[in-house]
Structures are given as structure tokens and as C-alpha cells.
Amino acid sequence: MRIYERPDFGGQMMEFMDDCPSVYDRFRYRDIHSCHVMDGYWIFYEHPNYRGRQYFMRPGEYRRYSDWGGYSSTIGSFRRMRDF
Question: Which intervals hold domain Beta/gamma crystallin 'Greek key' (predicted)?
């Protein structure tokens, strides 16, 4: 999965394959404005350590946070779903 600091896949990008308990510690930003899920299913959490509102991410392109149903671009953590 690739996350971006700006809408439409702009700005700084980081690619992840593993869980991330704190987006800020790894990305140095609290906001994820766009995302490209290339493989697997992921859950975004509103707060660090997998707390708060959750967003289910399927493979695909999310050009802005409203595409995944977010009320804001703030994402505190995320993890890959391993069991369905």
C-alpha cells in the first residue's frame, strides 16, 4: 500500500507492507490525503495504536480521504487484515 501526503497521489509517498501503529512516527505526517492499495485489505484507524473510527480499504485507488469515507485526512494507524 502506498500513502501520500496530498490528494491525487501528490507530495511525499511511502510504501508499506506491514502494520503501522503510529503513522506520525513512520511518515512524519498525521494526514493521509490519498492512498493506493495494491494488494490485500487494510484498516485505517483514526488514532494511533489501532483506536478510533475505522475505515476498510480494499484494493484500488483512493484519490482523496472522502473516497474511503473519511471525515478528515487524519489517520493515526493502520493494519493489514490477515483473516476474513
Answer: 1-39, 40-82
Tell which residue, 19, 23, 20, has the closest CA to residue 4.
23
pTM, full prediction:
0.90
Q: What is the tens place of the pLDDT at every residue in 17-70?
A: 999 999 999 888 889 999 999 999 999 999 999 999 999 999 999 999 999 999
- What grid cell was written down for 47? 488514532
Quick one: fold of 2-81?
Answer: Gamma-B Crystallin; domain 1 (2.60.20)
Q: Does residue 14 contact residue 29 with C-beta atoms inside 8 Å? A: no
CB atoms within 10 A of CB 3: 27
Scan for cell 484519490, then name that residue.
Answer: 63
